[in-house]
Amino acid sequence: MRQLEFTGRLILMGESVMIQWKKKGLDTCFYKDGQQLARAIGAEGCEDSFEEIETGVFCWKRKCRPAVRMVMELRAAYSPDFTMIPGVNYNGNGWGTFCEYTSDRYHGEPWQYGWHRASVAAMTYSEKELEGNLISVALFGEENGGNSCQLFEDNGEEVHRICWPETESPKALYLYRLGEAWHGSMEPKDTFISYIVLEENGKAKFGYRRALDAAWKLNDRERPLPLSQEEVWEAGIAYAKTLYTEEEDGFCGFNIGLAWEGNAWKKREVNKYEIGWCGQNGMLANALLCEALHSGDKEAETMGFGVLDSWLEKAMLPVGVAASYYDPGQDRYLEACDLGTAGLAYFEAAQLSEKLGRNGGKYLRAAYQICDFAVRVQDGNGRFAKCWHEDGSVAIREGTVGAFLVLPLLEGYRQSGDESYLKAAIKGTKIYLEELKTHGFTTAGALDIFSIDKESGIPLLKASTELYRLTGEKEWLEAARDSAWYLSTWQYTHTCHFGPSCILGQTGYDSFGGTLVSTVHEGIDPFALCYVPELYYLWKETGEERWLQRARAIWRNGCQHISDGTLVIDGKQRPKGSQDESYTVTRQGTHGRKADPDALRPDSIGIASQWLVAWPGSFRMEVLRRLKDEAEMWN
Q1: From CA 303, how far away is CA 495, in angstroms rounded?
Q2: Do the Cβ atoms of 520 and 451 come closer than 8 Å?
Q3: Nearest 5°: phi and psi at 193?
Q4: What is the phi/psi pair of residue 554, to 5°?
Q5: What is the 3-state secondary structure (H, E, C) of 433-481?
Q6: In sequence order, which residues have a C-beta less than 8 Å from that of residue 434 and are 6 or more positions away?
Q7: Which of 139, 143, 146, 153 minimizes the C-alpha distance to 183?
Q8: DSSP 3-state assignment of 124?
Q9: Where does this protein have compositionally biased stretches of type Polar residues (predicted)?
C-alpha cells in the first residue's frame, strides 16, 4: 500500500493506458489521456488523503474538526450509461408494478439511502463507455458506517455521495410503500472514511466487479460454520416430516410452512402446497428418498413416494403437466419456476426409484411431459412466459423467470439425446442472457412480486454452467461468470450490527453472505443456497477463489437460526429444522412490533419474519447431496 501524492500516475490492471491525478484547489481530479474521469470534492477546513489499498481501490480519509454532519462527494465526469445501488436500484428501476425507488430522485429531490439498504454498505456505482473503453466509478462506505448514500446526475456529471448522519429521504421505502423520511443523528467525529474504486477497462453492465471484490475483502473474516453437515441434514429431514400432510382426498404433500397463530405454530390452511418455489414438494420428496437410501428409513420412503405420486395422480392438468399448486377449488397459475423445478425433481425421482428397487417410469414420463410442454410454448424469440392459466393460455408473458424452463430441457437432453430439447434450451438461455447484457438486471423471479430481483438470475447461472458441462464451449463459462456477478450484486458483503432491543440483535444473526430479495422487498434471505453448487463448480473451472468464498458465505449465512427443537426466538419455541424465510435489515416495517418511536431506530431494525417456510431446508439438503464429498467446500 502507498499514499497517493496529489500528482502522479497510476496503472490500472496492468493496462498500458494510465490514469493520472492531481490536486485542483480543494478537489482531487483523476484523468485518462488528459480527460477528466472523476473528481473528489474537497471541503473547507478538512484534510483529505488517499491510500491505494489495491490496484484501483483507494481509501479516502477525511480529517476535520469534530462534526455532526459531513458529505464526501465524488463526481464522475460523464452522464452515465448505467447506474446501480446494488440490491436497491438498477438504472432507475421502473420495471414491474410494485412500489420501489425509481429514477434517481423523488419529485426533483435526489434519493438518500441508508447504508444498510445496499448489499455493499452505502455503495453507489456508475459507468460510461468513453472512446471504446468502459469507465466505471464506485464509492462505498465502512461496515456499519452510520451514513447514507446518494447517486444522481447533475449538469452532465454523475454525483456519488456518502453523507453523515444516516438519513433516508425524501421518502423511505417500507414494505410495498413509500413512508415518511427518516433522519438520524450522531456524536461528533473528526475522521470520515469512504472507498473509491476506478475501473478503466471494464465490461458494460458488469463494470462493478472490482468494487464488489474490494468490499468483500475489506469485510470478510473467519466465521465458523453454525452446524455440521450431519446436523443440517438431520434437521432438514425432521422438518420435512413435520410439514408432511395427508389430506382427506388422499393427496399427500408438504405444507408450505408454519406461522404463529394464537399460541402455537400452525400449518397454512390455504395455498398449502406448491411443487417448487416456496413449497418445494418435489425436492423435499427426493430428499426423503435419499434418506431412505442412506439409512433405510421406511417412513421417509413412504412419505417421499406418496408426495411424488400425489402430484401426478391428483394434480395433473389437461395440458399434460403437473400443476404448480394443489388447492382444490382454487384457480392458480401454472408457473415457469415451479415447472422447471418439478421437471428436475421428477428426473431425479426416476433415478432414486430404481436405486430403491422401484420402477421410475412414471416419474420419467412426467419429467419429459414438462420438457415437451416447454418446447411447445416457447415463443419464436426463445422466451417462455412467466406463467400460464391452467388451460395452457398465457397469463403473464414478461419476466426472465421463464428461464427456469431451460433447466429440465437440458436434463432431458442429457438423458435422451433429443436435439429439440437442446435447441430450445440454447435458444432460451441466449435470449435471456442477452437481456441481462442489455439491461443489467433480471426480472420477475420472486413469484409474489413483479419487479427486478435476484431469483430470476438464478436459472441463467444454472443453465450456463450446465451448457458448459454439456458442450465445453467457453462462451457458456463466460455467461456463467456474468450471471454469477449479477447475483453477487444482491449478496451482502457486510455484517449489520443490531442492538439488543431487536430480535436479530438478541440472536446474533450475521447478514454477511445473505441475499436481498428484490428492489421491492429488501428483506434478506438464504435463497442463494440453491445456486451454491454452481458457484462451487465455477470456482473449480476458473480457479477464481471469489466463487468458493461466496458459496461458503451463502452456506454459513443460510445455516443460521435452524432450530434444534429447543430454539426460542421472540418467546416462541420452534420445531426442529425450521427457519425464518427472511430477515429485515432495513426499515421495511415493524412486522408486528408496537408502533413506538424506538421501533425504527437504527439499532432496532433487525426483525425475523416468523414465517417458517419449507424451501430453506430443501435447498440445504440439495447442496449436501451434490457437494457432500467436496472437501474444499466444508474446510
Answers
A1: 39
A2: yes
A3: -130, 135
A4: -60, -45
A5: HHHHHHHCCEECCCCCCCEEECHHHHHHHHHHHHHHHHHCCHHHHHHHH
A6: none
A7: 146
A8: strand
A9: 580-589
Asked if 446 and 278 count as a contact pair (C-beta separation under 8 A), the reply is: no
Q: Taking the CB of residue 593, how many other CB atoms lie within 10 A of it? A: 16
Q: How far apart are CA 212 and CA 243, in angstroms?
A: 39
For residue 609, what are the contacts with CB-CB under 8 A and spacing of at least 6? 523, 580, 581, 582, 583, 584, 591
Instruction: Collect all residues with Cβ–Cβ distance below 8 Å to 430 and sequence separation of at least 6.
Output: 382
The grid coordinates listed for 82 are: 448505467
* Terminal C-alpha separation, the chain: 30
Q: How far is CA 108 from CA 160, 169, 548, in A?
A: 17, 12, 43
Distance CA(144)–CA(131), nearest Å, equals 38
- Is 0.85 topped by the overall pTM? yes
Over the range 38-56, which residues count as b (16 or more CB within 10 Å of their CB) and which as e? bbbbbbeebebebebeeeb
From the CA atom positions of the chain, what is the Rg in Å?
25
Residue whose entry in the numeric block shows the C-alpha cell 413512508: 179
SS3 (DSSP) at 149: strand
Asked if residue 597 lies in contact with residue 582, where contact means CB atoms within 8 angstroms, the answer is no
| CA–CA distance, 551 with 536 (Å, rounded to integer) | 6
Element (H, E) at 375: helix 361-377
Q: Compute the residue count for the chain.
A: 635
HSE-CB at 267 with a 13 A cutoff on CA atoms is 19
Instruction: Note whether 588 and 542 are within 8 A (CB).
Output: no
Report yes or no: 490 and 454 within 8 Å, Cβ to Cβ. Answer: yes
pLDDT, mean of each 10-residue run, the chain (635 residues): 41 46 91 85 95 90 97 97 98 95 97 96 96 93 95 97 97 90 95 95 95 97 92 98 97 97 94 96 98 97 98 96 91 94 98 98 98 98 96 96 98 98 98 98 91 97 98 98 98 90 90 96 94 98 98 97 96 97 80 38 69 98 97 91
Q: DSSP string spanning 116-142?
A: TTSSSTT-EEEEEEETTEEEEEEEEE-
Domains of the chain, each with CATH number or no CATH = 2-219 (2.70.98), 225-266+490-635 (no CATH)
Whether the Cβ atoms of residue 163 and residue 149 lie closer than 8 Å to each other: yes
